[in-house]
């Protein structure tokens, strides 16, 4: 499903379904430390019912499955959900292809709602009341993020410049370590109870880093096949010149935990 938002990439359309194969192969890259931050909050474990918004290829449910939570992953892209189901074979994880704003699970269905790498894509004025209704008393929303640091890592910086050559309005560039921003509409019904940012190093080969960059919004999700092929030729050549066969890229992770508070939202519609 194609998305378009003037606040993202200058309104250039993108569709994560177009890059689902590369996404499945190259974007399951979060180090164990990232998951330990979640578990340290006592979340996504021990029979908790968890809803993962914008699940993509199911990276979060698959990697946290062994800790005992009961997962449902949703994403508006059928292609992404198809890959999630394939990669989750043998796990009791449910997936649904549905936009977050159209979710309609029963009241108090979940202990935790997670959103990793996707929170800024949602219409929060529509979504927030639904999450409030679907969460149990004192339920949690866990917003998660990880990004490379182009000003601190030479390989990341060079790759990012090449993305900008092909997608000049790509708004994913220029990351620095900063807290996750929570829309104001959550203030009445949720309380921010925890926030943290932390440095990470993520291991890659030339092949896996090329795949990771190709599966970003500025390339695989938005360019034509001809443009993607031209970018990839240049990027592989660049990596041969500047990167060893194996290397680490500096990233940072961020987490924001919201607790359900206040009075129930009444929907008169």
TrEMBL record:
BP-aspect Gene Ontology terms: methylation
Domain Methyltransferase type stretches: 51-142
SUPFAM superfamilies: S-adenosyl-L-methionine-dependent methyltransferases
Pfam family, one: Methyltransf_11
InterPro entries according to UniProt: Diverse_substrate_MTase, Methyltransf_11, SAM-dependent_MTases_sf
Keyword Transferase attributed: yes
Keyword Iron-sulfur belongs to the record: no
Molecular function, one GO term: S-adenosylmethionine-dependent methyltransferase activity
Keywords attached to this entry: Methyltransferase, Transferase
Superkingdom as given in the UniProt entry: Bacteria
PANTHER family in the record: METHYLTRANSF_11 DOMAIN-CONTAINING PROTEIN, METHYLTRANSFERASE TYPE 11 DOMAIN-CONTAINING PROTEIN
Protein family (similarity comment): Belongs to the methyltransferase superfamily.
Record-given protein name: Methyltransferase domain-containing protein
């Amino acid at each position: 499903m194609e998305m378009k938002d003037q606040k993202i990439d200058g309104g250039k359309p993108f569709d994560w379904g177009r890059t689902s194969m590369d996404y499945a192969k190259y974007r399951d890259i979060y180090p164990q430390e990232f998951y330990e931050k979640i578990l340290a909050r006592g979340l996504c474990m021990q029979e908790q019912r968890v809803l993962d918004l914008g699940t993509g290829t199911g990276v979060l449910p698959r990697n946290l499955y062994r800790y005992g939570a009961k997962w449902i992953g949703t994403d508006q892209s059928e292609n992404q959900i198809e890959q999630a189901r394939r990669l989750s074979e043998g796990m009791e994880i449910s997936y649904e292809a549905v936009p977050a704003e159209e979710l309609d699970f029963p009241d108090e269905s979940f202990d935790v709602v997670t959103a990793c790498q996707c929170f800024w894509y949602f219409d929060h004025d529509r979504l927030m009341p639904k999450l409030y209704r679907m969460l149990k008393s004192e339920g949690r929303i866990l917003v998660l993020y990880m990004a490379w640091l182009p000003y601190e890592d030479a390989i990341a910086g060079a790759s990012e410049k090449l993305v900008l050559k092909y997608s000049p309005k790509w708004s994913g560039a220029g990351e620095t370590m900063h807290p996750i921003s929570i829309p104001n509409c959550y203030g009445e019904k949720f309380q921010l109870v925890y926030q943290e940012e932390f440095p990470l190093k993520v291991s890659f080969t030339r092949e896996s880093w090329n795949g990771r960059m190709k599966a970003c919004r500025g390339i695989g999700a938005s360019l034509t096949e001809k443009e993607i092929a031209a970018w990839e030729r240049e990027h592989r050549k660049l990596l041969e010149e500047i990167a060893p066969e194996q290397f680490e890229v500096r990233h940072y992770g961020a987490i924001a935990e919201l607790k359900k508070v206040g009075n129930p939202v009444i929907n008169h519609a």
